[in-house]
Amino acid sequence: MITKLTAEQLNCGKLLVLEIGHGLTVREIKKLVKAKSVKEVKDSIDDSTVEAAIHTIISQVIDSVSTAQLHRLRIYQVQGNAASILIPFRTDKFVYALDLTGVAMKELHNSTVLLRRILENKTYIKLTSILHKKLMEEIGLCTKIIKAARTKSKVIDDLDTNYGNADIVNLKAHINALLKSNW
Questions:
Q1: CA angle, 88 as apex, 99 and 11 as ends, to 5°?
Q2: Which residues lie below 8 Å from residue 64, measured CB to CB, with a gap of 6+?
Q3: Which of 13, 76, 9, 101 is closest to 48 using CA atoms?
Q4: In this structure, is residue 57 part of a structural domain?
Q5: How does pLDDT run across 96-118, given as a tens digit for each residue?
Q6: Which domain holds residue 52?
Q7: How far is CA 118 from its chain centroid?
Q8: Does the reported pTM lie above 0.85?
């Protein structure tokens, strides 16, 4: 885990980041950049290694600032007084040439994690906004239904109070009159 690694462990120096399929050998890269040495930083499944941390941080950085979808990267650690100026002329798979201290690596990691959290929160806020608007539409519909129901309730209340009252009185009187016949 990156947070358990020290700044000293993450002090990787110069990194050359290329997309897979760049077509350059380590020897060609060394010659082009005029480096003392060049070694590929192999990605690792074990996320507690410095190599895995470097790959994770660089991938996070690229994902956070680039619109291009870079799926697979090759990262090379470059030693010596090297210059990356010729690499983009030899391959269109050039991504970055970075010179990073351990402190900068930790800052990059923390910044990309924070950026990701903010973007996730914005997504949740957007979803909440959409759901709120739908809820307001439903409440508007419910309000119309309630208003219609209130109108119907008034009609029903009026019927309950007045329906058949005169007829009831007349029918009861008629029934009573029929019951008063003598024989």
A1: 15
A2: 111, 112, 115, 116
A3: 9
A4: yes
A5: 888 888 899 999 899 989 998 99
A6: 2-117
A7: 9
A8: no
| pLDDT reading at 145 higher than 90 | no
Residue 9 domain-assigned (yes or no): yes
What domain count does the chain have?
1
Which own/partner contact pairs does 50-54 have at CB distance under 8 Å and 24+ positions apart? 50/5, 50/9, 50/10, 50/12, 53/2, 53/5, 53/9, 53/10, 53/105, 53/109, 54/10, 54/12, 54/15, 54/105
* Identity of residue 163: Y
CA–CA distance, 122 with 113 (Å, rounded to integer): 14
**Separation of alpha carbons 119 and 125, rounded Å:** 10
Asked, for residue 128, whether it belongs to a domain, the answer is no
pLDDT in tens, 8-59: 888 888 999 998 888 888 888 888 888 888 899 888 788 778 888 888 888 8
Residue with tokens 């050039």: 94
CA 160/CA 163 separation, integer angstroms: 6
Residue 91 lies in a domain: yes
CB 14 within 8 A of CB 77: yes
Length of the chain: 183
